[in-house]
Amino acid sequence: MTTRRPTPSRRSLLRAMAALPASALVLGEVPGLLGTALAAAPPSGSATRYTIVPFLDSNDGTVNVYQSDDATDFRLAKSAAYTPPANRIRDASIIKHTNGYYYLTYTTHTWQDPSTTIGFARSSDRLTWSFLYDYTVPIANLSRAWAPEFFVDSDGSVNIIVSCSTTDDEWIFTPYLLKATNSGLTAWSSPVALSGIGENHIDTFVVKLGSTYHAFTKNETTKYIEYATATRLAGPYTISRTGNWAGWGSYREGPALVQLDNGGWRIYFDGYGDGTYYYSDSYDTFATWSAPKGLPAVSGTARHFTVVKETVTGGVSLPKNVTRSFRSVNYTTRHWQSQSSLLNLPVVTASSTTAEKQASTFTVVPGLADANGYSFRDASGNYLRHYSYRARFDPNDGTSTFAKDATFIARTGTTSGSARFESYNYPGYYLRHYNYQLRVEQADGTELFRTDSSFLPVTAWA
């Protein structure tokens, strides 16, 4: 591939009903370091792991834990992983702290009730959580403290951005900044409103690149996610993108960002009006974004989450600068084979011809676009790449586009020793066989897709 690239808000309904009588990010294990050092495929034997801890559309009294190795295909790691001893858990934000523990902060009450506290929980393994405490946000006449978002700055300081309203207008929210004053995350500075973003903004999520803070925040009047920048975390911020600037549409909330292995940035947001959880990617420092897509598997179930990204052990170990053949996991007599420059999946056996065996043998080399990734060369020296979604072999033309088209990130397959090969420049798209032809297709969250896209490296046929 060389190219690719109205329902009322629940809160507005709630606000109308109430009138009747009755975001941080930590990437890997380097808090706040959000530069290109973390934008690389995992090394051999390691894997990328993304973790989310959303509350459920059907239940805001508990959270599930999901994990993914590609930021697209999230799988349930533990259901009902944490239920607070009292009240609710909504809008959970997760980090991994320098002490090795994972922390959650979250909204403690449902929308009907005053909510002057935010909750905290801790885990050593992301799966089993212990309640720590509820913290009363010290703002005079506070009515509601919603959607606390962790942010770990480049100096290592742990901060929370929380959306707060006061009793004079309980539905008008302003983002406030809290800073941890001890390493145990049990004491916090006095709240300071984020300058420049102002009232009637909620779900503010910040990332830092270089010396610039980038804020994504929902405008509660227009229901669009807006974009602002500042040179200090507390501001003043300048809102420079409003309306449908990114093509995400309106009635969107809960933005959360994470950097992908290929250096791009992914934003997740809750399309609460249509029941879909979306993601969208940017490769030009947030100027433009891909068309939003529904997140497989968890869309319609998960609500408002943030993401923690880590590099962990247990990934694919595939030697480089060696020859291998690749066998389908679910069609065990079928192997990759170059046929008229296209990659297909015919039957290959000991009785196959020498030419067929040679066409089914490939040299595994460091990825042309990322040495931690993989590229594959056939016997004639051509490289496996995707073009119009089809897997094919072409000579390297030396361009950046070709290098990216010909680079794949190895993710763990469905059987022991197998691998799934994700397109480097189309995250979430995998080499997958269909009708015994190989294409790059978008993961759909099903076990069939995972199996169809899993291949076992075996001794080379030639």
UniProtKB/TrEMBL annotation:
Gene3D superfamilies, sorted: 2.80.10.50, Glycosyl hydrolase domain, family 43
Alphabetized Pfam families for the sequence: AbfB
InterPro entries listed in its UniProt record: AbfB_ABD (IPR007934), AbfB_ABD_sf (IPR036195), Glyco_hydro_beta-prop_sf (IPR023296), TAT_signal (IPR006311)
SUPFAM superfamilies assigned: AbfB domain (SSF110221), Arabinanase/levansucrase/invertase (SSF75005)
Domain Alpha-L-arabinofuranosidase B arabinose-binding positions: 325-455
GO molecular function, one term: hydrolase activity
Keywords: Hydrolase
Protein name per its UniProtKB record: Glycoside hydrolase family 43 protein
Organism: Streptomyces phaeoluteigriseus
